[in-house]
Amino acid sequence: MELPQLIYLGVIGLYLFFFLLFLRYFVWRHYSNKHYWSKRKVLSAFELEKLAEEKGKKLPMFSILVPAREEADVIGQTIEHLAGLNYPHDLFEIIVITDEKELSSGKSHTTQQVVEDKIREFTTRGNCPVLKHVMVPYDFDGNFQGQGLGKPVPSTKGRALNYGLSFIDGSSDICGFYDAESHPELDVLLYIAQEWINSEKSNRIWQGPVFQVRNFFYLSPITRIASLYQALSHEWYMPVLMKMLPFVGGTNLFIESDLLKRIKGFDCKALTEDLEIGVRAYLAEGAWPDYFPYISTEQTPENYRSFFRQRLRWAAGHIQVIEKFKNTPEYAGPKKNSLLKTLLLKGEVEWTLYQIAVLVPLAVIWLSYKGLIDPSALPDGFRIFLKSLVFIYFGFTYYLYIVKYYRYMKKRGAVNSLMALISLLVLPLAGFLLPLPYTGALILRAFNSQPRAWVKTPRTREIAEVSMKKA
């Protein structure tokens, strides 16, 4: 066998290897359905009260924290949605955390105005949960129970959350965290309360899936594909991932209030404050998060530039977490070393692998152009079979759009739905572009130029309420 034939066989071997990795989705689907999605039950406040009485426990008090800087376009709908959660209104509060710096931005329509209007509306409406508005001072140092420094401090999500934690109700048992555009399923508090009542464990953390598809018809073709596979990963893969890592995603997240106090809240300087607090809660208190099968719909960045910046921050934050705990002697020991190895595997190693995967087709094209491969090493029929595999990728993507996640999207009519269907034909290009932020983070880290500042992700404006349909 000649060298061009051997090169061809090697390339085909890689192609088939990555196709087998794709098939893992169906293994993950089986696992997640068996252990989580098939076990969802109809919940009611009456049954929950009965369960609490049988267990000799009370219904838990929830504090829902929503950081919202420059979120006037979406925060009103989010407040309305959260206020409609199926749970006794006297047993949960909504705390919207805004940023004082927004008032000096010169905008005529601010997040603060929307929240204050909602507070006045709730006062007259009645039968609503307590709605609090707290504003982070420009000089707040960002630490849990921190102080003012007399000079501006950079805004981060962790900084805002730490400030908001000082205002939770004294009887709060569980803190929930949602982004400014989050629309969770209406029974989510009933489920978390049921888990809390049934559990004999302490230091509980729960993380649910987030489907970032609600603004699907406002997205560019590349970010549309990103949103579909992000939702799929949270539905099928996250239950598996959370058996390997104490992963939390920062939204659709619940943490016991006492645990938050003991670990002193969030790291205000972390690019990914969610991953950092999950790792720290495990190392400091042995708290391992549990997956729960109640979704929250959110948004994906509208264009590839915003998507790239968001994912670059996520990747840089992942690397930052590894480096932080690697250099923290406080948590020395085999538990930390094992966790760091898993973080490295699920981060840099897998990012590199996925980037190699999308380079295989480009390599085939280049090698063919140079005459360096000889397909005659395989029978014609088998080569036709290999080419047909591409239709599986396209078919699966259309399945995600039409069957699985269309119902969670804010609809814009038949024409836009058809145009979105056509736009998914850019799947091969998306396969190349979507891993690039993670590759970029590795390259920037090699030159010590990785992002160090938290950057806010722009939102899509929402005017009308989008109803949450149950999965």
Give structural attributes.
glycosyltransferase, 15 helices, 8% strand, transmembrane helix, 10 strands, single chain, alpha/beta, globular
Describe the protein.
The longest helix has 36 residues. β1, α3 and β2 form a beta-alpha-beta unit. Strands 3-2-1-4-8-6-9 form a seven-stranded mixed sheet, sandwiched between helices. A three-stranded mixed sheet has the order 5-10-7. It contains 15 helices and ten strands. The C terminus is likely disordered. The chain is globular, with a radius of gyration of 24 Å. With 471 residues, the chain is α/β, with parallel strands linked by helices. The chain starts with a helix and ends in a 25-residue tail after the last helix. 52% of the residues lie in helices and 8% in strands. The chain has one domain: Alpha-Beta Complex (Spore Coat Polysaccharide Biosynthesis Protein SpsA, Chain A), CATH 3.90.550. α2 packs parallel to α6, α7 packs across α14 and α10 crosses α15.
Low-confidence stretches: 465-471
Distance between the termini: 54 Å
Largest sheet: 7 strands, mixed
Work out the radius of gyration: 24 Å
Count of alpha/pi helices? 15
Helix content: 40-55%
**CATH C-level class:** Alpha Beta
Residue-averaged pLDDT: 93
For the biggest β-sheet, the strand order reads 3-2-1-4-8-6-9
InterPro entries: Glyco_trans_2-like, Glycosyltr_2/OpgH_subfam, Nucleotide-diphossugar_trans
Organism: Biomaibacter acetigenes
GO molecular function: glycosyltransferase activity
Keywords: Glycosyltransferase, Membrane, Transferase, Transmembrane, Transmembrane helix
